[in-house]
Amino acid sequence: MHIIDGIKIAEEIEKKVRKEAEGKKIKIATIVVGESKESILFAKLKEKAFKRVGFDYETIYFEEAKQSKIENEVKKMNDDVKITGINIQLPLPKKLNYINLVKKIDAKKDIEGMNPCNIGNTLLGNENIVPCTPKAILKIIEHENIKLQGKNVVIINHSNIVGKPLAMLMLNRNATVSVCHVFTKNLMEYTKKADLLITATGIKWLIKGQYVKEGVIIIDAGIKEQDGKIYGDVHESAAKKSSRITPVPGGVGPVTIASVLENAIMSYKMLGKNS
Hints:
2 domains; about 280 residues; Rossmann fold
């Protein structure tokens, strides 16, 4: 079993971004709504990454806000020529509609890759600004020189942010893709056939040894905090049967943040900036 070092992969991406960002006026604006510890933590991690690569950044916190107020803030950011990238930190309070918010972001400034324009381009194979977690998973696969063509890929997540765009990326590379979720009957029937299993449910130790075949490659993008410890979706009994696996933490997470940085560079280019 080979444990994939997501921190090392992220550092390699950051090094390239830092070099490419030299002499460029890149500014990222992040909107955080509510008092979710998870949301605030992710925003702080992004700020540290922006600082490491030399980006300017601004984080705007709202304790509570109506949809219209956030949309107005997004419009201001779209109109601000100094801001080259915009992102809305998840999770949001339930009363806010995330999809409607990202629709308001200028597609060229959408560094999370969730504007319908960017999702549509990903579907069509024009992978310019790609959703960050799927992009991170693809970066890991590419780093490990895993060839996707003809592989049986099983994704356990069908969200707009992870599962759906990830399935597009896999199909763009001619993999045979099964997308499973909470309503899937007999999950093991699918996971046992996987050459590459990608799971992102946040259910501690969902995937046990009997769910996978020997030599499977596993990308564990799940995260669950319990009693002060962090757990992934994959139990040790399944990990032992894998040929390669990402750890939790230290796997997909760091590469996701690095992918935000790469998207920020792409946004800058798409805006036609020269300095």
